[in-house]
Amino acid sequence: MSPDTSPILRVAGVSKTYAETVAVKPLSFALPAGSVTGLLGGNGAGKTTTIGMVMGLIEPTTGTIEIFGREFLKDRYHALGRMNFESPYVDMPHRLTVRQNLTVFGRLYGVRGVADKIEELAGDLALKEFLDRPSGRLSAGQKTRVALAKALINEPELLLLDEPTASLDPDTADWVRAHLEDYRRRRNCAILLASHNMAEVERLCDRVMMLKEGSLVDDGSPAELLARYGRGNLEDVFLDVARGRGNGAAA
Ligand SMILES: Nc1ncnc2c1ncn2[C@@H]1O[C@H](COP(=O)(O)OP(=O)(O)OP(=O)(O)O)[C@@H](O)[C@H]1O
């Protein structure tokens, strides 16, 4: 039997218009298993809205989203247990301890052996010292690590990450990136990652989609984008795109 090469996620003509704002213009892309795709763009480019639509939190104005081969908005339950997300904008109940919060999420996702899974994640992500502390009494960096544990609790095959290393110090951020790389390899997971951190995108992503004011203005591997714009790093490519200069598709 030939291996299944159908994409984990297929987004076709998806757009979002709020009352007066076009947040995302019709956007199409697909994520194969084991791929890491970065969403890059300045403030207000439409990254969070795109991730919100794939998560099922924001209803698209047009288009279809297919996850694991089925239309997501018509049949969410087929996909929800096999996907997860991390966003610094989603907080956990403050009075529950980290362990209690992770237990609730583990049960929501139908994880078997939740207590053991939490111990394993606490070891992997260095949460042990504050596992029994109320979640409201954590530093920003500790919260980010707990959010990552929550995102991995059901061993998702599709992982949506919105600024996964925001508020982490460079050492912890590096360590989280290594963890994500390792997880992707082990699970052959597809990852969609929105980030402002160019070094992170360059390191983790095999494909980068550049958004500007809701439009996809360029798309390629980090190496292709560097060559296209004649730049040595993605930060300079980002600035070229943001300022409408250079040799890219948007220029
Ligand atoms: N609930 C909303 N109602 C109206 N407009 C919204 C809403 N959410 C987002 N927008 C608008 O949609 C556009 C895209 O916002 P979005 O949050 O997706 O951008 P982003 O690329 O994630 O930006 P940032 O890097 O600043 O987080 C912006 O112009 C924003 O003001």
Q: What does this protein structure show overall?
A:
The chain is of the alpha/beta class. The protein has two domains: 1-82 and 157-246, P-loop containing nucleotide triphosphate hydrolases (Rossmann fold, 3-Layer(aba) Sandwich); 89-155, no CATH class. Helices cover 36% and strands 23% of the residues. The strands form two sheets. It has a six-stranded mixed β-sheet with strand order 6-7-8-3-9-10, sandwiched between helices. It has a four-stranded antiparallel β-sheet with strand order 2-1-4-5, covered by helices on one side. The longest helix has 18 residues, at 170-187. It is globular, with a radius of gyration of 18 Å.
Task: Please describe the structure with a list of short key phrases separated by commas or semicolons.
ABC_transporter_ATP-binding; four-stranded antiparallel sheet; Rossmann fold; 9 helices; globular; transport; alpha/beta; 251 residues; binds adenosine-5'-triphosphate
Question: Which outline best applies?
Answer: globular
Q: Which residue ranges are poorly predicted, with pLDDT under 50 across at least 5 consecutive positions?
A: none
User: Largest beta sheet: what is the strand line-up?
Assistant: 6-7-8-3-9-10
Structural class call reads alpha/beta
Instruction: List the bound ligands.
Output: adenosine-5'-triphosphate
Span between termini: 45 Å
What is the CATH H-level superfamily of the largest domain? P-loop containing nucleotide triphosphate hydrolases
What number of domains? 2
CATH 2nd-level architecture of the largest domain: 3-Layer(aba) Sandwich
Main pleated sheet: 6 strands, mixed
CATH level 1 name of the largest domain: Alpha Beta
Helix segment tally: 9
Percent strand: 15-25%
Look up the CATH topology of the largest domain.
Answer: Rossmann fold
Give average pLDDT, whole number: 90
The Cα radius of gyration reads 18 Å
State the share of residues found in helices, binned by percent: 25-40%
- Helix-strand pattern: EEEHEEHEHHHEHEHEEHH
The count of DSSP E runs of length 2 or more, i.e. the number of strands, is 10
Organism: Methylosinus sporium
Family: Belongs to the ABC transporter superfamily.
Domain ABC transporter: 9-238
GO molecular function: ATP binding; ATP hydrolysis activity
